[in-house]
Amino acid sequence: MTSRRIAGKGRFIDSSSKVAFTFDGRRLTGHPGDTLASAVLGAGQVIMGRSFKYHRPRGPVAAGPEEPNALVELGQGNRFEPNQRATTTALFDGLYATSQNRWPSLEYDIGGINAKLARLLPAGFYYKTFMYPREFWKDIYEPFIRKAAGLGKAPTEKDPDTYEHVHYHTDITILGGGVAGLQAALTAASGGARVLLLEQSPHWGGRVMADGGEIDGKPAADWVAATITALEEMDNVTMRLNCMGAGVYDHGYLLGYERLRDDTPSLPGPRHRLWRIRSTRVITATGAIERPLSFAGNDIPGVMLASAVRDYLELYGVAVGRKVVVVTNNDDGYRTAIALKAAYVDVPCVIDARPLGGGPLMREAEAMGIPVERGRAIGKVKGGQYVEGVAICSHDGSGGVFEREIECDAVAMSGGWSPVVHLWSHCGGKLTWDAEQALFRPDAKRPPTGADGEGFVLPAGAADGELLLGDVLGNAHDAGREAAKAVGKTAKVRRRPVAVSVAQAPILPVWMMPARAGYELRSKAWLDYQNDVKVSDVALAAQEGYQSVEHTKRYTTLGMATDQGKLSNINGLAVLSDALGQEIPVTGTTTFRPPYTPISMGAIAGEARGKVFQPVRRTPMHDWHDTHGADWEPVGQWRRPYAYVRRGETVHDAVTREVKNVRQGVGILDASTLGKILVKGPDAGKFLDMMYTNMMSTLAPGKCRYGLMCSENGFLMDDGVVARIDEDTWLCHTTTGGADHIHAHMEEWLQTEWWDWKVWTANLTEQYAQIAVVGPRARTVLEALGGMRLHPQALPFMSWTDGQLAGFDVRVFRISFSGELSFEIAVKAGHGPALWEKILEAGAECGIQPYGTEALHVLRAEKGYIMIGDETDGTVIPQDLGLNWAISKKKDDFIGKRAQERVHMADPDRWKLVGLLAYDDAVLRDGAYAVAEGRNANGQRNVQGRVTSTYYSPTLGRGIAMGLVHDGPNRMGEVLDFPGTDGKLYRAQIVDPVFYDKSGGRLHG
Amino acid sequence: MAETREYKGIALIRAEPPCGMITLRGGPDAAKGLATAGKRLGVKMPGPLGAELKDDRGLLWMSPDEVLMLCPAEDVPDHLDALRGALKGHHAMAVDTSDMRVRFSVSGAHAREVLAKLCPLDLAPDRFGPGHVRRTRLGQVAAAIWMRGDGAFEVICFRSVGQYVLDLLQVAAAPGSEVHLFSQPVG
């Protein structure tokens, strides 16, 4: 390999210094400012990867983000990343890249045999081949497809880099920093609007940096530099390079994807940043992408877009070949021929499909001595791993006869330009077909609209279908003025910049070359390089009945690769239109969806990883639990101790010990997570009578009542103890998971339905630590703390009182969820840990022990108490649970009342709560079904009930369970069958759900 | 939350000591009684999205019918007594919520962008400054943000997620993560 660098060329590189990197294990050098693609090309290597289906050798076809071929695996170890475009990867010292989809090497790839079998792998091959026999799918077809699929390998190590989001609000966002974006920014910002200007590449100026031109009497690059300086001096303009407009969404929301440390991995700071932008107006100055031409062999490494050939030459000082044939259907191709010739690269000829050739640019090329073949086409490209020559023929024919062959080592092709309409289209902007220029451009009459019905995206420059420099600037200036006006500003820049545009002869639309190419040529003319979709595949799809462009895309995989069809889309739908005998606009385009090019998963996740992946809610006593053996259980976003495991214990041992200790002595539980909602006002009683199924307005101050809350559909959604604080104030306890949504539920009814009721609510859940002291010796422990009287006359069951314990202001509720004597003590959250410790000290003599949520569950189940989320699942009404006693019959209404009167809810066939005692003291499986006679329509066993809660009861020394059973309460003593997933049959007897202390004597102790 | 009370990255993050907070809810009919809160602190009643602050005390607008009173913790009982007296006979609520939340400050040249990484507010200096308060989110949790007279931001969140918010602010203030959005590029 010999260097292809051209001395004196390369605007973006510093040829005076070198950068060392590794490609496929070879040490190569490039220059600062190179992309990986320009550096590898500069080192003399064209082939950089293999295609997806046929493993064809692939070299870069483009020089920018539209590149479908030059995808590499970047980095090693924990910085390994597949499918990275070499054309947008900035070169840095130590860069490590490996080509993909080849084995054992790029040059000698075993999978390349697929190319020989191309006739056996037509469009829809997978669908056709892997359908039958069906039983082959799981063990044969799927593993085969998975092995063959995918380009790069998935990373296996944890990413060491950091990522973040940033939110930004602005009046106008301009996507694209070419001359159109710069001019639009200059005009739009001149009236004082806040302007954000994003450019995806590391350079301002877009195409003029390679193509030159003259703006306002100076070289375009000088105009770019002067404009950047002017914009930088404006306080209301924010500019970012390496930041791509990734997506445009409703309400002026858009995403920017900023790459900060890709080429400086050793510096601190985030690798990528996702900009979450709110913008009143968006200007898409996203430029245009050149189209390939579809001729046989157009995928051989060395066949490139003509504009890319200019980019490599002018921006990176790389000649892609020594002898470069240019093939074109428009005048732009001549720019490449002229640029190459001026750099002393041999241009054997320009092949122009147009019978009369082009305009002034063609004449300039001819004047430089470049022959022009008018009305000619490339019949086929000769070569395998690199271009060896082209055979030319008449364009207006079938290519049956090649006139002659021209020796060359690269081909520059120009099939015309397609405006980058992606960001215009993301949020619903429509397109119109410009037949004269043969391109889809934004339809100004059908923009994406905002909440006010006005269009909020304005296209500018080439992205709006303007291809001449003067028109680009004028159009962008107008877009800038219009955007400024839309945000209430008047642009002060009034003059359109003046640029000299070279006149151009009309384009000849060419979708296949030659125009009537036969099957042999069509089956070697690539549309989608990465996914290996050829002209013949799209034609076959049409022949097989595919008409919709969306269906054809999925059938052939056209445009479904990582480049999402940036080069192939228009050519493909033109071929489809031709096959269907209809006009291109009738066929239409596939849907443009964000992101414009792939963005990193890290950028999407932002800061949410590691310890801030998800918020963990901690109670005031969290740290104590953590240092005392807590085996944590997530409860919503809270962490609660499941059990406090002592040395030598299993978790099950700990639960058993904790349950026994509560029943026989005294336990202490952190109940701080329970919801605490204060409800106050003259109408608070009336309001709570609607919220709860039972009567709360009649509760006396100082008393507590257990309440049920149902949804409008009658289903039980929450339960808890309500305490009446004073004449117009109630405190509602909710479940741990219910605190936020029950508060929201209350506010919703108050704000939308009963807005005239005088009620205020406050969610005080986190104001208090709540400590339950539970067991026969609970009173003894609390009395030892001193400060208040807690004997049964002073504080009977289901009442509360304010007082002091151990010097802390507390509110003590005498309520129980265990069936034992029990006090729940609310104290200011900040005092929680101190009071907790005091109680433990005072209880030491009584053998007090902390207990966790599992002991809590066992205790309540032994007592037959239901648990929201165990006995309920959103389909269960209180009546199913035998809770009729908690449903007021005196009230006219409560939320859920009418629903509970509906036929299905009142149906006696509903499954109802019972206790279950398994034979041999076994513990039933949670969720196990009780089977009934017969089978249902799906051939499954009929069922008649299921287990909702099941535990080993240390108190009873056996398994206990609760379940919902068909007509259960009337079937006491019957035995049900529960087939286990272990193949065994479990049998259980229906019993009363209260397993322990049915008289309630302990509770009232 | 014991390990780190202060962190210096591209901004200074500090866990602030607890202060007194009283939640006041009331409608126009209780306006006169609610005004007692401002009188006792020497500040005006804030308008929508407003913060009226004087040293370590003030009133934050929380919603059209809710104001949060900030004061030294030891003043809470007196304020509550006075407010309940002034609100007697009116439909209003005054309740101590001092223990419900924790407070952080974020200061330094890049404080705005540290917050902009975590919440969807418009934090441009001409859109958000002293006298403003916003209830918003930080990362995945609810928070409120206002600015002190000295240019530092104060952040409150629920007590249970205090450690998460402190961690989050530190992540957002990591060295080398300047965005240079609301300040001129340095160096």
From TrEMBL, chain A:
It comes from the Bacteria. Pfam families: Fer2_4 (PF13510), GCV_T (PF01571), GCV_T_C (PF08669), Pyr_redox_2 (PF07992), SO_alpha_A3 (PF17806). GO terms for molecular function: sarcosine oxidase activity. The keyword Repeat does not apply. Coiled coil: none annotated. Keywords: Oxidoreductase. Residues 621-891 form the GCVT N-terminal domain. Residues 912-997 form the Aminomethyltransferase C-terminal domain. The keyword Oxidoreductase applies. Residues 171-424 form the FAD/NAD(P)-binding domain. Residues 523-606 form the SoxA A3 domain. SUPFAM superfamilies: Aminomethyltransferase beta-barrel domain, FAD/NAD(P)-binding domain, Folate-binding domain. One of its GO terms (biological process) is tetrahydrofolate metabolic process. Belongs to the GcvT family. This is Sarcosine oxidase subunit alpha. It comes from Marinibacterium profundimaris. The lineage of its organism: Bacteria, Pseudomonadati, Pseudomonadota, Alphaproteobacteria, Rhodobacterales.
From TrEMBL, chain B:
Pfam families: SoxG (PF04268). It comes from the Bacteria. Transmembrane segments: none annotated. This is Sarcosine oxidase subunit gamma. It comes from Marinibacterium profundimaris. The lineage of its organism: Bacteria, Pseudomonadati, Pseudomonadota, Alphaproteobacteria, Rhodobacterales.
